[in-house]
Amino acid sequence: MIRKFICPKAQTQIFHIGLDDTDSSEGMCTTFLTFNLVSRFLKDKNKTRLIDYPNLIRLNPNIPWKTRGNASLVLRIESELTMAEVFRMCKNMVDRFATSKHANAGLAIFEGEKIPDTVREFSRRALFKVQSLSEAISIMDKIGIRYYGLRKRQGLVGALAGIGNELKHDHTFELIAYRKSCKVKRSIDKSKIIKMDYKTRPSTYNSYDEENNRVLITPHGPDPVLLGIRGETPRAVKQAFDLILPLKNLLGYMIFRSNQGTGEHLQNVIDLSKLKAYTSGKLKGTVSTRPHIERGGHVFFELKNEQGRIPCAAYEPTGNFRMKVMSLSEGDLVEVGGGIRKKTSRHQSVLNLEYLIPRKLVSLWIEKNPICPKCFGKMNSEGRNQGFKCKKCAFTSKFISKSRTEVGRELTQNRLYLPDMKAHRHLTKPLQRYVHGKLQVEIGRTEQERLVRDWILTPKN
Ligand code: ATP
Questions:
Q1: Which of 45, 140, 197, 262 could form a disulfide with 207 if both were Cys (CB 3.0 to 4.6 A apart)?
Q2: Does 141 share its domain with 20?
């Protein structure tokens, strides 16, 4: 994906710039800082060029200290500027934007073409584990990565992890538009978004949750983001954006390349004998207790395998997904993915479910009293091992037993079940991005019709 631009006149260097934790729940957004940094670099086009789309790397979504979606931002540039000059420009930008006392900002800059394996490995683990700041710093010191942090400097973890994820495999794009003033309420015509979604899906995804009638491209916080449209290609997200123009209070937009919608954080296999809080991943096991609903509408069941047992939860916001979870029976073999909630004095570790695939469903039977072979009336039991007697003609037999009928299961083996779209994480791989193959995709009829009609892109695995 990375394009190289060789400038014959001057010597150029490649820089990978990682940024994280410049925002807080009071406002700002690291993507907005990146947007401004790109504008700054491009002011002097002859000196600096982007060699990739700005990267929006989502890290472990189960980290409790994230502000929203645990995003790390990376710029990969080719420049005539020196490391000192690039570093100064980026540092100034961080100082200007990361002003909240909750922004534990991190900036890391690696100079060179090939990302070292240690950084790639750190990045791989940051998708599903908790990584330490001291490890990040020790790696940067060893390799000679220049870094700068504010306050607790936790952002350095994300900044380094972002650099290490070059999105070499599955990836998507997001067009993020920014607003001029954060004081002006976001007001975008809902019908336009629904139309845009209808026209552009599946080349775009998760713009509108039809089931819950909810628009998903606009955030609700005080940050400068006006909207974000996610899709398969830069062209697709730009075309979708054009369909909702003009927009009030629009400052500008930028397209990011991302691991969003790829499910990258769930490739790790969770070992129940070595449970660590906030780990993301998947595991297989047998349902060992019948699912039940608790106060607030949350559904729980227990899963066991050779390594141990764990309660699994599908919370209220996951919507109809809970009904699928409720349909599980003891003995079902399932694959589940999600994040480990920390153990407290009140409850043990819990796996918060992000997907469910029933791998082998047990057969369920109902038993009914037999029908009288003489008059077809209903028969009643005469007591344990005493046979049955017809209520109508009083025919009695010790050789008749209850009839057994297999009950159809609500769930389908090897089918993927996901929470409602409104509850998806940024990294959740939506149904439309799976190819028909190993996994059958469960989609509603209207959705299916639309997919068939509009299937203009081959989704990636
Ligand atoms: P936004 O989505 O608005 O950019 P955010 O959800 O990305 O915000 P941050 O404010 O950036 O949240 O906070 C996330 C913090 O967690 C950062 O400091 C980041 O470096 C750190 N972090 C990310 N992944 C890990 C990880 N795997 N282990 C430890 N720390 C991590």
A1: 197
A2: yes
Give the CATH number, domain containing residue 413: 2.40.50.1010
Residues 300 and 440 in one domain: no
In a domain, 77, yes or no: yes
Indicate if ligand 1 lies below 6 Å from the C-beta of 71.
Answer: yes
Which helix (H) or strand (E) segment holds residue 126: the answer is helix 117-126
Q: State if residue 104 touches ligand 1 by the CB under 6 angstroms criterion.
A: yes
pLDDT digits over 171-226, tens only?
999 999 999 999 999 989 999 999 999 999 889 999 999 989 999 999 998 899 99
Same domain? 347 vs 421: yes
3-class SS of residue 47? coil
Which atom from ligand 1 is nearest to the alpha carbon of 154? 18
Q: Are residues 280 and 340 in the same domain?
A: yes
CB neighbours (10 Å) of residue 135? Answer: 14
What does pTM read for this prediction? 0.89
Backbone dihedral angles phi then psi of residue 134, each to the nearest 5 degrees: -65, -35
Do 270 and 252 share a structural domain?
Answer: no
pLDDT tens-place string over residues 388-422: 999 999 999 988 888 888 889 999 999 999 999 99
**Dihedrals φ, ψ of 397, to 5°?**
-150, 140
- Give the ligand 1 atom nearest the CA of 102: 10
Atom of ligand 1 nearest to the CA of 223: 3
Q: DSSP per residue over 48-109, as a string?
A: EEESSPPEEEE--TT-TT-SSS-EEEEEEEEESS-HHHHHHHHHHHHHHH--STT---EEEE
3-class SS of residue 10: coil
**SS3 category, 390:** strand
What is the domain count for the chain? Answer: 4
